[in-house]
């Protein structure tokens, strides 16, 4: 059974993918958007501390066209990378860019359910993240 530790929702935000040369700027933009959201980050941070985490993420991608390329043609794994890199205390190995401090590191994440859903307008795009505590049960033999 999972216990929900927090929820983060963003709208009017285009989910970004990982692109090596632009990653730092994209991570900083995402971190700042999440910080500016109505999420109760200090409480979520406290509740997540030292826990095994499950993430449920719905990326809300716009169907609208931009320069003949659909905005929703994005790889799920590349969108996840940006989110997972922003969640620890630092977003980089050099510890120069502060993250959100919601998880210790990627090893804290035991489960991820991610999906893309398509919305009609840019205003509706963004994401919803539900952070839960995972209880790991040992296998029992009869």
Overview of the structural elements:
There is one protein chain. This protein has 142 residues and is α+β, with helices and mostly antiparallel strands. The protein is built from 3 helices and 6 strands; from the N terminus they run βααβββαββ. A hairpin with a 2-residue loop joins β3 (65-66) and β4. The longest helix is centred in the N-terminal third of the chain and has 13 residues, at 23-35. The two termini are 22 Å apart. 24% of the residues are buried. The model has no long low-confidence stretch (mean pLDDT 88).
Uncertain stretches:
none
Average residue-wise pLDDT: 88
Run of helices and strands? EHHEEEHEE
For the record, give the distance between the C-alpha atoms at the N and C termini, rounded to a whole number.
Answer: 22 Å
What is the number of strand segments?
Answer: 6
- What level of helicity do the residues show? 10-25%
Largest sheet features: 4 strands, mixed
Strand order of the largest sheet: 1-6-2-5
Q: With helices defined by DSSP (H or I, 4 residues minimum), what is the helix count?
A: 3
Write down the Rg.
Answer: 16 Å
Oligomeric status of the shown chains?
single chain
| Class from helix and strand fractions | alpha+beta
How much of the sequence is in beta strands? 25-35%
Dominant shape: globular
Task: Write a brief structural summary.
By secondary structure, the protein is of the alpha+beta class. The chain has helices spanning 23-35, 41-48, 76-86; strands at residues 3-11, 53-62, 65-66, 69-70, 109-119, 126-133.
